[in-house]
Design a protein that fits this description.
Length: about 140
């Protein structure tokens, strides 16, 4: 056991270090990253595209297309907020008049929900949450 500790403490030659770096880089290339963005809305529904890519792969074809209502974002936020306080605040809930007659309100809401999704997907610990996985796996 003592010889193993001494061997581990000894500096490695260049070939071993290069070989180890290549193994680490190959493993990192297998890691999937996810992104999601709002691509429009249909009435009360926001159209979301979920993208998945392995590091180093430039293919960003949508993995899945979803539709979600504002209230589904609100439920997700209520579940995540206690553990992920750095997420952006959701836009306010609308009242009927604002939703129906104020295009600027809806445009602002869509933009802010998009920022929320981006921040959510940028946080690996949030993406690992069961509620986030459920949000992206269930259709409306």
């Amino acid at each position: 056991a003592a010889t193993a500790a001494v061997a581990a403490a000894e500096p490695r030659d260049g070939d071993e270090a290069t070989e180890e770096l290549e193994v680490v880089q190959a493993a990192a290339a297998q890691i999937e990253q996810f992104s999601a963005r709002i691509v429009g809305r249909s009435g009360k529904f926001y159209n979301i595209e979920l993208h998945s890519t392995r590091l180093g792969d430039s293919n960003l074809a949508p993995l899945r297309k979803l539709t979600k209502r504002y209230r589904e974002f609100a439920v997700l936020d209520m579940e995540l907020r206690p553990r992920h306080q750095a997420l952006p605040t959701l836009p306010p809930k609308s009242v009927f008049v604002r939703r129906t007659f104020k295009q600027n309100f809806m445009d602002d809401r869509e933009q802010r929900l998009g920022a929320y999704l981006s921040a959510l997907m940028a946080d690996p610990s949030a993406v690992a949450e069961p509620s986030v996985r459920s949000f992206f796996s269930q259709a409306c």
